[in-house]
Amino acid sequence: MAKTDRLVALVQLLRRHRRPVTAEFMAHELEVSLRTVYRDIATLMNNRVPVRGEAGIGYVLEAGYDLPPMMFTVDEVEAMLVGLRWLRGRADPALGKAAEDALAKIGTVLPAAMKPILFESTLFAPAIGNKSVADSVDIAPVRLAIRKGLKAEVRYTDEVGKETRRVIWPIGLGYFDTVRVIIAWCEFRGAFRHFRTDRIAELRIAERYPTRRADLIRQWEKERKLRPMQRKT
Q1: How many CB atoms lie within 10 A of CB 19?
Q2: What architecture is the 3-61 domain classified under in CATH?
Q3: pLDDT in tens, 100-148
Q4: 86/106 Cα distance (integer angstroms)
Q5: I need a labelling partner for 232 at 20 to 30 A (CA). Which of 24, 31, 74, 85 fits?
Q6: Are 140 and 101 in contact (CB under 8 A)?
Q7: Which sequence spans correspond to the domains of the chain?
Q8: Long-range contacts of the stretch 104-107 (C-beta < 8 A, 24+)
């Protein structure tokens, strides 16, 4: 690995960890010697990259530091391409368009030598099996509700055709091959439930819910570990 690529990889490794990372761990991850790691850390520090720490304890990258977009590796560009192509074919129209815009923006900042990786790629993410099910309502407001911690009032039809009106606290949106599922706390059930967006006949965004979204997500994740995610309502 060239030194420049190795330095970028080292910064990326540090960005993935909030706690100090030992030189031994970095040497193992990058498949280089300890001496090389210490030399590279010194190089980063000399170039004013905010790496703090010392040998025997570990190193951290201070918050706020970022790499310029043109420092993406080939694998990172391909990962973004596949991910955005996958999302473009499965998201609501607004998010699908955002995926296209993101690809275009990434393309403008890539060096000329890397542009073919994005625009002439042979990596695809086609839908397998049944075609994606269309949503009954625009779910772009759901993403807004998730970001702002807002309740949603919905008219929902379950898998056996029973219709109910619910007030839910959306905390996440799951994208499957053919359907999208809202992860939410349901006031009607007093528990977490998963709502297919194609079964929502009406949707209205309401006031803020009284709990922090981060706390709800932690609670949902804790329950999810006890039992697999189900689309029950």
Answers
A1: 6
A2: Orthogonal Bundle (1.10)
A3: 899 888 888 787 878 888 888 788 887 666 667 888 899 999 999 999 9
A4: 16
A5: 85
A6: no
A7: 3-61, 69-119, 140-226
A8: 106/69, 106/72, 106/77, 106/80
pTM tops 0.70: no
Model confidence pLDDT, tens digit, residues 6-30: 888 898 899 888 889 999 999 999 9
d(CA 40, CA 44) in angstroms, rounded, equals 6
Residue 48, CB-side half-sphere exposure with 13 Å CA sphere: 0
- Rounded to whole angstroms, how far apart are CA atoms 40 and 70? 20
- Assess contact for 119 and 84: CB atoms under 8 A: no
Token code pair at residue 123: 């990596």
- Asked if 3 contacts 11 with a C-beta cutoff of 8 angstroms, the reply is no
Residues in the chain: 233
Tokens of 104: 């275009």
